[in-house]
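Deliverable D4.2, example record:
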Amino acid sequence: MAIEIKAPQFPESVAEGTVATWHKKVGEFVERDELLVDIETDKVVLEVAAPSAGILKSIEKPEGSTVLSQECIAILDDAANKSQAAAQSSAQTSAPASTNTQPNKSAESSETNDALSPAVRKLMAEHNLNANDISASGKGGRLTKEDVHHFIAQRASSMPAKPVVTELPKSNVTLTPTATPSTGIGGNRTEKRVPMTRFRARVAERLMDAKNNTAMLTTFNEVNMQPVMTLRNSYKEAFEKTHSVRLGFMSFFIRAVVEALKKFPAVNASIDGQDIVYHSFYDIGVAVSSDRGLSVPIIRDADRKGFAELESEIMQFGEKARNGKLTLEDLTGGTFSVSNGGIFGSLLSTPILNPPQTAILGMHTIQERPVVENKQIVIRPMMYLALSYDHRLIDGKDAVQFLVAIKQTIEDPARLLLNL
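Output generated by the structure prediction step:
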């Protein structure tokens, strides 16, 4: 019997999606609950699995197509079994008798690909790679993104130095040759035009909204990280052994942010039309990076969570972001955000608000600098902090004092235990 495979029921805030990647081809057998296709919305990537076992009879919405909520995207024949799929495949690939007895590498590759994460499969598809050609270093012999990137880098270094044009779907990419200039630059130079993903387009829209519809200002300060680094070095091994998670710096800053928000409730508020909404809870957004871009999942009720719980949630969000598993629930809400550009080496930057939130804290790289303490010049691991805020709601005085409160807590972490 033919079964319609439909797009998921999108939330009210999501109008439509785009078919990102089909993981199965027409004629292939699929098991029940096996991943069929990824559908990208402006917020998350939704996975569609097979409702039952059968053969994928047709694909109604190819990659790059726009789909609506509950729209039919494929037809599955659940009356067909695995042997029928194999017979069809054999018939399609049958040829005159041959003495070739080597194993079917394409079949091996298909089996291998089933164990790959969506991110790895997408990367391999973009570069037309075979999993059997790449050495795997992941747990249980699994192939990781780092393995693929290393293979690509090795292959590039061994190839002749000439331009390579990757053939991409015509619906998504336009390659436009440009004339060779007369300045001595040789070779055929090309450009490629790729439509923005829905996620990137939505990010761009929100950034422009924050710029045009808020009175955003930024205040800066710097913090001596030595006390936190000393505390962390003293207890990180015992902490990891007890809680099975590493003790990082982010949990210290989230706890410091929560204590500062309690003292300055306007920084934890939002503007709704002509109203100010004060929140009695502390849902902290933590910016995490992935191949798709920057996402801000929410740690809910951060004031009720200890260091181990915070670090565990941050680690889980990072893994979900890298694997494209963040859900709408993970990304919805939030009263304040923290972004750590320091992990990429940023020394100083101006973070952009995440509306309707009215403030965001930017952390930066730790750098040893000379500072004056007790009239003596000493070397300390220093970090610049930046607080961007909506001046429509938050006065400059409150913003500065809020940032100072975070600085005081980080430079004297015992305040977290004594609620000072």
